[in-house]
Design brief:
Blueprint: H1 2-13, H2 15-44, E1 55-59, E2 67-68, E3 79-81, H3 82-91, E4 95-110, E5 113-122, H4 126-130, E6 136-137, E7 153-156, H5 158-165, E8 175-178, E9 181-188, E10 204-207, H6 211-214, E11 226-235, H7 241-260, H8 269-276, E12 281-284, H9 292-295, H10 297-328, H11 330-338, H12 343-379, H13 382-385, H14 394-419, H15 424-430, H16 439-474, E13 485-490, H17 499-514, E14 521-525, E15 536-538, E16 540-541, E17 553-559, H18 563-566, E18 573-574, E19 588-592, H19 593-598, E20 609-611, E21 622-628, E22 643-647, E23 657-662, H20 673-682, E24 688-692, H21 693-700, H22 702-736, H23 738-746, H24 751-783, H25 796-822, H26 826-830
Parallel strand pairs: 2-11, 5-10, 7-9, 17-22, 19-21
Antiparallel strand pairs: 1-11, 1-12, 3-11, 4-5, 4-8, 4-11, 6-9, 7-10, 8-9, 13-23, 13-24, 14-23, 15-17, 16-20, 18-21, 19-22, 20-21
């Protein structure tokens, strides 16, 4: 305790040095803690269930002829058909339970209060496999999963129950409308459990056998070529993952070869052989199933590397500060050694001081971490930020504490060793109390600054790459004029509307908004524009060959009349859709240039025929009436795929729609009007994804924005810290060389030559650090290539500008000490020390 009190007194004797060190550490540790918070939630945290390490996720890669539906729980490589799930569930013996689940969007209404929320269809084995217990009531079990379509029960998510229903336990046994169907609430999920898919928070859990009731018009329980279910299980005690894999594939192989392979029609021999060789993948499932685990890995490691670099630069600065302060305390250390103090005791005292300094920085870092998390939350899409925690959790506080202690030891060790070196007493005696600069310490300080410059160069280049990538993305030609357009979606099929009523509702919505003052155009689409949705199907096209291994897939969209005109797209040939293109009229389509190119339609596109009726022959029943330029479809960064558009009015089964409202003024003004108009039309239909199209684009490129802004901010901070470090080292060096400089000037050296002498040292450190940093940046550029758009990871312009910026900062940091050195009075310098 006495040593800690002494450490406090020592630190507060130099308040400026202590304050600079604490602020530097707060920035470095805070940035790392914020990124660790995301890292922990996305890549480390197991599901809040008993023994999560026993869980395994199942995958089914390989040919999947038929329909595939995949979502946030994972890509289409891991989905199974419903019959396959039941086959495996019935026969497996190595798991205590095998569960299936799939997410869906839901309109919920409790006591006439409608809300849109995430929901999840789960098998009766879902909660038992997870070994969960309800907060109140009961959870779904096998008795709720008997037969198809007759299990009108649900379990509420804990957060939904608390936030929307006030945590009232009496709701158990009452009714709630889920997509227009009345379900009995049988229980509440446990607190802290948000499903098994990171990025979604299910408000309700519904038996998977109710999928046809939840999704209007859906069929597929009996189809082995309909892949949509995600599977996971829990290993029995003593059973390894390898044993689970072997046992499940023993069951899987005969089902594939004896039951499903004979059902395949029109498949080539090669493709059929690949189908027969399919295997089940079994992987650890402690963290649940989510594509976010994979999608976030590279960006998070990248940001972690950036923040760690900032912390290392801060540590180098503090090590230099401690070395400089240690030089001023050399007399004290020498006297204590001469009086019999052991070196170990003195080193312990100095390390306590450095760790205490780091802990003070760690406490301050919690404020920085919270600010950083708030900034990240603002940069992420709302649907992602709402499913994650952006407050400081206990794990983050522990991480900050551990990093604080580690950095305290890291930056304090060499100064402690140097300040208590064995020749200290001899040096004091030989210099009669005057300390000279130790060459080892000088070299170490110069090395630290060189490393700082190298790290800052790498970060500047990385930030430059991400900023240029963001600029490229921001200037992508979308093919549409998004200014002054607002968008929103409605899903009447989730509120009990049949397809006929839904079509009438869509017509009324368009009419109401068309007559709203200030609206110059209204249109709609089934697939929302640039919202990350991809809808595709195989097609037959006039003049294009068909075959088992020929790719005849295309994206598609169903759109309203005047769709292209409202979006500011000029047709290259043919005409736009009109109100006359509806059920009963001849089927028509408009295709984009990528479609025309893929299917070899040539110059005369308009008038040719196509069909979505594949595999069954029949006529080509859709006439192509127009050709449009390539319009971005799902993602701003993706190449425009082949797309064909059909009128939504020619589809009798549309249950949801996205609308686009064009106004002469900025479209943000109409965002308040849209919910009011929808309430007049039907107050029971929630408005979904209400935003302007520019906001839609911003959300679409949110990952690029987050990486670019954070990388730029951290790079600027690292450059500033490197500049401060360089300034500190040169200032200290000039002070130590005052006598030498005075001698040089007394012997005839002019001020310019002295400035050049100091700046030459800056140039040497800049040259070495810049070369090392550029080499590191090349490696970072290659690693980040998949995150960049429209440029290479070794872009010469970015490299050159980054080095110029750092050279200017280094020059500015070095010029002041150089100027001070050139103004030394020779007579004063000769009397120095």
């Amino acid at each position: 305790m006495r040593q800690i009190k002494y450490a406090f007194r020592t630190l507060f004797k130099t308040p400026f040095v202590t304050t600079v060190a604490v602020l530097s550490l707060a920035l470095g540790i805070g940035a790392n803690s914020a990124i660790f918070s995301l890292f922990d939630q996305m890549l480390l945290q197991p599901l809040p269930v008993p023994h999560p390490d026993e869980l395994v996720n199942l995958g089914a890669p390989g040919p999947k002829p038929g329909s595939q539906s995949c979502s946030q729980a994972g890509d289409c490589d891991v989905v199974f058909s419903y019959p396959m799930f039941r086959d495996l569930e019935k026969s497996q013996t190595v798991l205590t339970g095998l569960a299936a689940h799939v997410g869906f969007g839901a309109n919920l209404s409790y006591k006439n209060q409608p809300v849109t929320a995430d929901a999840m269809l789960v098998s009766g084995s879902y909660f038992p496999t997870l070994e969960l217990h309800p907060a109140t009531g009961r959870l779904l079990d096998q008795s709720d999963d008997q037969g198809i379509g007759g299990n009108f029960v649900t379990v509420l998510g804990y957060d939904f129950w608390k936030a929307k229903l006030g945590g009232d336990p009496s709701v158990v046994g009452q009714q709630i409308l889920v997509n227009g169907k009345s379900l009995t609430i049988v229980g509440i999920a446990p607190k802290g459990f948000d499903g098994t898919t990171l990025g979604t928070q299910p408000a309700v859990y519904v038996p998977i056998s109710m999928r046809a009731q939840m999704i209007q018009g859906w069929i597929g329980f009996e189809r082995r070529d309909s892949y949509w279910a995600y599977l996971f299980g829990r290993r029995k005690p003593g059973v390894s993952i390898a044993q689970v894999r072997s046992a499940l594939n023993t069951l899987y192989a005969p089902i594939i070869n004896d039951i499903e392979a004979p059902l395949q029609k029109g498949m080539s021999d090669k493709r059929l052989a690949e189908f027969r060789e399919k295997k089940i993948l079994v992987e650890p499932g402690a963290m649940g199933q989510s594509y976010m685990h994979t999608k976030s890995k590279t960006p998070l490691w990248m940001l972690f590397g950036v923040t760690l670099t900032v912390l290392l630069i801060a540590c180098a600065n503090i090590a230099n500060l401690l070395l400089a302060r240690g030089a001023s305390r050399s007399g004290e250390m020498g006297v204590r050694l001469a009086l019999g103090a052991t070196r170990a005791r003195l080193m312990t005292q100095l390390l306590i001081e450095s760790v205490l300094l780091a802990l003070m920085g760690g406490v301050a870092s919690l404020v920085v971490a919270q600010w950083t998390l708030n900034g990240i939350a603002a940069l992420l899409p709302s649907e992602v930020s709402q499913t994650m925690s952006f407050t400081l959790q206990p794990a983050v506080v522990l991480f900050a504490a551990a990093v604080s202690v580690g950095t305290g030891l890291l930056f304090g060790m060499f100064p402690a060793l140097h300040s208590t070196r064995s020749d200290l007493v001899t040096t004091i005696r030989s210099n009669t109390g005057q300390m000279s600069t130790h060459r080892g310490a000088a070299r170490f300080r110069a090395t630290l600054v060189t490393v700082q410059i190298a790290l800052a160069t790498a970060l500047l280049v990385s930030a430059g790459l991400f900023l240029k990538s963001l600029a490229n993305v921001s200037h992508v030609d979308l093919g549409v004029k998004i200014d002054n357009i607002a968008t929103f979606g409605i899903s009447p099929d989730r509120s009990g509307y049949d397809t006929l009523r839904a079509a009438g509702l869509f017509e009324r919505v368009q009419q109401e908004f068309a007559s709203t003052p200030g609206v110059t155009g209204v249109t709609a689409s089934l697939v929302p524009l640039l919202a990350g949705s991809n809808w595709g199907t195989d097609v037959r096209v006039q003049g294009f060959a068909e075959g088992p291994d020929i790719d005849n897939n295309s994206r598609y969209n169903e759109v309203g009349d005047g769709y292209f005109g409202v979006l500011g797209v000029s047709l290259l040939a043919g005409r736009d859709f009109t109100l006359a293109d509806r059920v009963g009229s001849g089927k028509v389509a408009i295709v984009n240039q990528a479609f025309a190119k893929k299917f070899n339609l040539g110059k005369d596109v308009v008038g040719k025929y196509m069909s979505t009726n594949t595999g069954h022959g029949g006529p080509l029943d859709i006439q192509i009436i127009g050709l449009v330029p390539d319009i971005k479809y799902s993602e701003v960064k993706d190449t425009v795929p082949p797309v064909f558009y059909t009128p939504w009015r020619q589809d009798a089964g549309v249950g949801s729609m996205s609308f686009y409202i064009r106004t002469p003024a900025p479209s943000s003004a109409i965002l308040h009007t849209i919910p009011e108009v929808m309430k007049r039309i039907d107050a029971g239909i929630p408005v979904e994804d209400l935003r302007t199209m520019p906001e839609q684009i911003t959300q679409n490129i949110s990952l690029d924005r987050m990486l670019s802004i954070l990388a730029a901010a951290f790079a600027a901070l690292a450059t500033l810290l490197a500049g401060v470090g360089l300034y500190g080292v040169l200032s200290y060096t000039v002070a130590q060389r005052t006598r030498e400089i005075g001698v040089r000037m007394a012997l005839g050296a002019d001020a310019r030559r002295v400035r050049v002498m100091v700046l030459r040292q800056v140039g040497a450190m800049m040259a070495i650090g810049g070369v090392i940093g550029a080499a590191v940046a090349l490696g970072i550029g290659r690693a980040a290539a998949s995150l960049l758009y429209g440029l290479k990871g070794h872009d010469p312009v970015v490299f050159a500008l980054s080095i110029v910026v750092l050279a200017l900062v280094a020059g500015a940091a070095g010029y002041v000490p150089a100027l001070r050195a050139s103004q030394v009075d020779p007579m004063h310098a000769l009397r120095y020390e």
